[in-house]
Design brief:
Order of helices and strands of chain B: EEEHEEHHHHEHEHEEH
Distance between the termini of chain B: 32 Å
Helix content of chain B: 25-40%
Strand content of chain A: under 5%
CATH topology of the largest domain in chain B: Rossmann fold
Number of strands of chain B: 9
Largest sheet of chain A: 2 strands, antiparallel
Strand order of the largest sheet of chain A: 1-2
CATH architecture of the largest domain in chain B: 3-Layer(aba) Sandwich
Order of helices and strands of chain A: HHHHHHHHHHHEEH
CATH superfamily of the largest domain in chain B: P-loop containing nucleotide triphosphate hydrolases
Radius of gyration of chain B: 18 Å
CATH class of chain A: Mainly Alpha
Number of domains of chain B: 2
Largest interface: A-B, 25 and 28 residues
Number of strands of chain A: 2
Radius of gyration of chain A: 22 Å
Oligomer: heterodimer
Structural class of chain B: alpha/beta
CATH architecture of chain A: Orthogonal Bundle
CATH topology of chain A: MetI-like fold
Structural class of chain A: mainly alpha
Number of domains of chain A: 1
Number of helices of chain B: 8
Strand content of chain B: 15-25%
Number of helices of chain A: 12
Shape of chain A: globular
Strand order of the largest sheet of chain B: 5-6-7-3-8-9
C-alpha cells in the first residue's frame, strides 16, 4: 500500500528520475564508450524530436497497438474469465482448455501469426492479445470465484437475473483484480510490442530503437528506450488513476484498525 | 402468512445422505413475528432459504400467502448474519437495491426512503461505503434495504449476532418499532434466548440436527416496555432455557 502512495507523490518520482540520471551520467563518463551516450545528449535529442515532431508518429503507432491489444484482450478475457467464475459448468469446460493453451510460449507463434495476419497491424495486435488474454482470463476467473455465496444469496432473494448479478456483483467485485491484471498485462504487452515491432514495421518505438541501432546512432537508440520507458510510466499512471476513481470503496491501509480510510484521502 | 408443512431437506455428502430438516411444521400468521431458537447446525439457515425460495430441493409444502415462494415474483426481505451488503455500492445504493431490482420507480418512493433512512440514523451516511462503517451501521443498512422493499415476508438470519451487547439491544428496539410500523410477517432466527423473548410473539424451539420444531411457546412478555428491568423477563428466560436444555440434550 505504501508503494501506491510513493508512486503518486510527485516528489519521490522526481527524485527517482534524478537518481537514475545521475547514475547513468556517472557510468557514461567513467566508461567512455560509444554505446553509452551521456543522458544530457539523449535528453537534448528527445527535446529536439518533440519540437520537430518526428517522434510522434512512432509513439502513437506504438500507443495505438498497445491500446488495441489491451482493449481486445480485456473484452475477450473478461467475457470468458468472469463467465468461468460465475457459471461452474462453464469453468469445467474451459479450464482444461485455458490451462492447455496458457503455457505455450506465444512468442514462438509469431511466424505463424505473420503468415495468417500478414505483416501489418493485425499481426502485432494479435500477438499482444494472444499473450495478454490468458492473464486477464485467469485472474478475472479467480476473482469471480472468490465472491462469497452469501453476496449472491441476498440478490437472489430479490429475484435478480444473471444480467443483474453480473452488473451489480460480479463486475464491480472483480474490478480491483481486473486492474491488477491490467498492470501485469501492460508490462507484458510493452515487451511483446517491442518484439513485434522489430519485424515488418516502419513505425513504432520498437522499430525506432532497432533502426537507430543498425544506423549506429546510439543517442537515437537511447532516446527510443527512454521514451518507451516514459510511455510505460504514463500508461501505468493512467491505470492507477482510473483505479482510484473506480475502486473508491476499497479501504486503504490497516484493514483491522478502526475506520477505513478511503483511497482518495490518503493518496494526496 | 407463512406455512411450512412437513418439510424435509437432505443432501448428499461423501456418499452419505445427510438430513438437515425433518418433517418440519411451522406457521406464522400474517403480520405476526416468530422467533426461532436452535443449536448451531440445526438447519435454521436452510429453513430460511427454503422459505425464501432459494433452496428448492425439499419435500413437503411451503406457501407464502398461499403460493409457492418465487424470488422473482414475491417481495421477500432477507437480512443475513453478515449483512449481505455490496461493498462497492454506497449506503444509499445498497438501501435501494431491492427497489431497483424490483423495477420500482425511486422517485415515487422518495419520502419513504428518506423517512426510513432517518429512522435508522443513516441519513448522514448515505454516500459512505460499507467498509467505512461500523458493524452496527452496516446492519442498519441491511435492515433499511429489507424494509424499503415493503416485503410480504421478512426473514432474519441471526442478524444481530455479530454486534456487541449494547448495539444489539439498540438494534432490537429499532427493529421492533419498524416491524410495528410495517406489520410484516417475520421469521427471526437467533441463537439467544434473551433475543427471542425480545423480538418474538411466539418462540419456536428447534431440535438438534436434523431440525424439527420441538415446541412453540407463546411469549407473554412481547411488546412490554423496559423488558430487561422486569423480573418476569428473567424468570421466562430461565424457563425457556430449561425447556431448550431438555430438547437439546
Amino acid at each position: 500500500m505504501a508503494m501506491k502512495k510513493l508512486r503518486f507523490s510527485g516528489d519521490t518520482t522526481l527524485w527517482a528520475f534524478i537518481a537514475l540520471l545521475v547514475f547513468w551520467y556517472l557510468f557514461s563518463v567513467t566508461l567512455k564508450v560509444a554505446f553509452l551516450p551521456s543522458p544530457v545528449a539523449v535528453l537534448q535529442n528527445i527535446f529536439f524530436h518533440f519540437i520537430s515532431g518526428g517522434m510522434y508518429l512512432h509513439l502513437f503507432a506504438s500507443l495505438g497497438r498497445i491500446a488495441a491489444g489491451i482493449a481486445i484482450s480485456l473484452l475477450i478475457g473478461l467475457a470468458i474469465g468472469l463467465s468461468m467464475g460465475y457459471f461452474p459448468r462453464f469453468d469445467e469446460v474451459f479450464s482444461p482448455l485455458v490451462y492447455l493453451l496458457y503455457p505455450i510460449p506465444k512468442i514462438a507463434l509469431l511466424p505463424l501469426v505473420m503468415l495468417i495476419c500478414g505483416l501489418g497491424e493485425a499481426a502485432k495486435v494479435t500477438m499482444i492479445v494472444l499473450i495478454v488474454v490468458f492473464q486477464v482470463t485467469v485472474s478475472s476467473r479467480d476473482a469471480a470465484k472468490a465472491i462469497p455465496q452469501e453476496t449472491y444469496a441476498c440478490l437472489k432473494v430479490l429475484g435478480a437475473s444473471h444480467k443483474t448479478m453480473f452488473r451489480r456483483v460480479v463486475f464491480p467485485a472483480t474490478l480491483p483484480a481486473i486492474f491488477s491484471s491490467l498492470r501485469v498485462s501492460m508490462g507484458t504487452a510493452l515487451s511483446v510490442l517491442f518484439f513485434t515491432e522489430t519485424f515488418g514495421a516502419r513505425y513504432g518505438m520498437g522499430y525506432y530503437i532497432m533502426n537507430s541501432w543498425t544506423r549506429v546512432n546510439y543517442v537515437d537508440m537511447f532516446t527510443g528506450i527512454v521514451l518507451l520507458g516514459l510511455l510505460g510510466y504514463v500508461l501505468f499512471a493512467v491505470i492507477d488513476g482510473l483505479y482510484l476513481r473506480c475502486c473508491r470503496w476499497q479501504p486503504l491501509g490497516e484493514k483491522h484498525g478502526g475506520e477505513g480510510v478511503s483511497l482518495e484521502r490518503s493518496v494526496k | 402468512m407463512i406455512a411450512v408443512e412437513d418439510v424435509s431437506v437432505s443432501y448428499e455428502s461423501a456418499g452419505k445422505r445427510v438430513k438437515v430438516l425433518e418433517h418440519l411444521h411451522l406457521e406464522v400468521e400474517k403480520g405476526a413475528i416468530c422467533a426461532m431458537i436452535g443449536p448451531s447446525g440445526c438447519g435454521k439457515s436452510t429453513l430460511l432459504k427454503v422459505i425464501a425460495g432459494l433452496h428448492t430441493d425439499y419435500t413437503g409444502n411451503v406457501l407464502l400467502n398461499g403460493s409457492v415462494p418465487e424470488p422473482k415474483k414475491d417481495r421477500i426481505g432477507f437480512v443475513p448474519q453478515q449483512y449481505g451488503l455490496l461493498n462497492w455500492a454506497t449506503v444509499y445504493e445498497n438501501a435501494v437495491l431491492g427497489l431497483k431490482i424490483k423495477g420500482d420507480a425511486l422517485k415515487t418512493e422518495k419520502e419513504h426512503i428518506s423517512s426510513l433512512l432517518t429512522d435508522l440514523g443513516l441519513l448522514s451516511l448515505q454516500k459512505k461505503y460499507p467498509l467505512q462503517l461500523s458493524g452496527g451501521e452496516q446492519q442498519r443498512v441491511a435492515i433499511a434495504r429489507a424494509f424499503l422493499l415493503k416485503p410480504q415476508v421478512l426473514l432474519m438470519d441471526e442478524p444481530f449476532s455479530a454486534l456487541d451487547a449494547i448495539n444489539r439491544e439498540k438494534m432490537q428496539s429499532i427493529f421492533l418499532s419498524l416491524w410495528e410500523k410495517y406489520a410484516v410477517t417475520t421469521v427471526f432466527v437467533t441463537h439467544s434466548v434473551e433475543e427471542a423473548i425480545c423480538v418474538g410473539q411466539r418462540i419456536a424451539l428447534l431440535t438438534p440436527s436434523p431440525g424439527r420444531i420441538a415446541r412453540v411457546v407463546d411469549n407473554p412478555l412481547f411488546g412490554k416496555e423496559e423488558l430487561r428491568l422486569c423480573k418476569a423477563y428473567y424468570d421466562f428466560a430461565l424457563e425457556l432455557r430449561k425447556m431448550a436444555g431438555e430438547i437439546w440434550q
